[in-house]
């Protein structure tokens, strides 16, 4: 099942390190079959408030996403980003191709009734 690296980037400060990070990140993703799905343009906010931008990376599975994040190659360049951009990064599993949110509702109703 695919997994994703989701980053919510806020207060970006222009810096040459950011350009270096952008130039080097793909080389850290390639060995883990990671790819950019979304990369940072401002979003069209249709509900609520969304300060900043987002990045979405896709990996074959959660173990591979974790391996990328903890890899020496990524850890080496990570400060180029984190020293200049405030944000959050999550690793999360996707859903199966036939995912049905109604099944989740059934499970949540059962948990609420039990507890």
From TrEMBL:
All copies of domain DUF1330, residue ranges: 3-95
Annotated InterPro entries: Dimeric_a/b-barrel (IPR011008), DUF1330 (IPR010753)
SUPFAM superfamilies linked: Dimeric alpha+beta barrel (SSF54909)
A Pfam entry, by short name: DUF1330
Entry protein name: DUF1330 domain-containing protein
């Amino acid at each position: 099942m695919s997994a994703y690296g989701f980053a919510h980037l806020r207060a970006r400060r222009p810096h040459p390190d950011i350009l270096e990070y952008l130039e080097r990140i793909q080389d850290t993703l390639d060995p883990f079959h990671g790819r950019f799905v979304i990369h940072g343009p401002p979003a069209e906010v249709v509900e609520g408030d969304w300060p900043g931008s987002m990045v979405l990376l896709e990996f074959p599975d959660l173990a591979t996403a974790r391996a990328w994040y903890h890899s020496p190659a990524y850890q080496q360049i990570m400060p180029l980003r984190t020293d200049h951009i405030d944000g959050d990064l999550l690793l999360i599993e996707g859903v199966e191709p036939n995912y049905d949110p109604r099944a989740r509702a059934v499970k949540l109703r059962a948990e609420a009734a039990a507890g």
